[in-house]
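HUMAN:
Sorry, I am quite new to this. Are you able to go through these amino acid letters and fold codes? The numbers rather puzzle me.
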Amino acid sequence: MGDSAAGDLDRISALPDDLLHLILTRVECAVSVTRTAVLSRRWRHVWVHAKSLTFDGKSKDLIKRSTAPDYLAGFVDWALAQRGDAAGMESLQIRFPPNSCASPSPEQVKRWLRYAGRHVAGSLDLYIPSKAPADEDVELPAVGVPTQISLYLPHRKLRLPPAAAAMYGALTELELLAVRFGEEASGATLGDFLSSCCPRLRKLKITAPKGLHRLVLRAEELQELRLSSARDLQTLDATAPNLRVVKLVSCFHNPSIGIVINHHKVARIKAPRLEKIGMRNAPRRRPALDIVHGLDGVRCVSDIVLDVHGKYYLDTDVGLWLLERCLGVQHVDVRLVHVVASGVNPGELVDLTSEGAAPFTSVRSMKMVVTRTLDLDRQRVANISALLTRCPRLRSLQVNIIFGGNTLLPFLGNQVDKCFCDDLDKWEFDGKIVLESLEEVKITDFTGAVEEMHLLRLLFESSNSFKRMALLPLKNKKNRLVFKEGGDAETILQELTKIPCADGGRWHFVKKTFIWMCNSEISGMQRSSAKGSALNWNVLYPGFSSHKCAYSTYD
């Protein structure tokens, strides 16, 4: 056995260096990679040429070897020093655990960034959490060769090099998380750095930045721009001829400020090739929008919020604004919320069912999220139906009913007990939805409640093109199905069969899901199945659409 093992080791050691480096790249974990030095004299220095190193503070190997709070930082320093100027590094990950008691010093972080800037030709991932604010600066080197950079540096100020002296010519993807910005003595700004020093940048994602008041981008190659929780942002000015995706979530506002309509905060975007746009702001804090030459080509609108009160919509966010201007949109991802407010400007209240309202005729699929709360159940059908009346050519609909209270109340400052809409008397939707193209519907967290059955009746009555419907019941923490009081799957199934207009098909309870299919669909599947075999309903459920945006490539 010993001779056989030795022979195996000799055969591995005899492999070419390039192949050994590739094997170590697959290992990734820096602890395991460096331990290969003990295998033999030849292996002693093989690991320094590994193309990928991952220093993960949560890895079991690293935790076992850790003898002091600063062990991880010291191990990174040692490993990079051993590696020296060895070329060909494709990936470097340095990730401290979230609850780490010790953080590396600014000098150490500076050394790691400088090393990566010179030697990492692929991706750099630096994740250094901090429990308490620290008055520390992290300096980005003037020159870098990575193609992808992800920095998580909470409570630390990122110092940018002067644009005239910096170059990141290979950088295509940049992600900045919880990074703090400030006035540079050199006058360098993030916009200057990205516009002048990153000519190949295609994807930019910035999350929860501090001190980012203004972002001006002039980026020829930029395809995706995602900003979230940029609460200090006052102005976004982006000109990007190849931009396809824009996502702005919870930007342009600070919760410590009262309720204001932020006309002095501006988002200017010039993107003639825009295909997908997602925007969501805190309630009643819409910035001024100036989107030039970009909305005509939009096919997917996501992350929008509609503040609905029965059939009425409070027009203080960007949701309806986008739907009315993206005339070619085919897929919509929307959340219906109810923000309690004691008084509103009459000019902000819009009746979604108004006869003069222009329909969204290009919308073909919609994913809708609504909140289930006891005090709002009576208006949920009116909320959903009012929006659907504007989408006459809808083919596919998914409704996710989620539990939760009014999660948006904290943004409003002083909470109020009574909403202005309590005085509105038209909660019931007394009109008819016309959705002649609607073919499939999927509803999640279904309980069989009265208002849900009412919604199903309206949907069945709306279309003669229905092919299939899936109702996924609500589940508790023990993965057990939850129905309305006293109900079970059998009684719910009986109630479903009594819905008018559903008699053109059949209901079944398969895989803990209520499934309805029209008779023509069932007949077609029977004809295509093996002769003489029974139709297997268990294979039908996977056929339902996932309702994803057609541009999920950019998700």
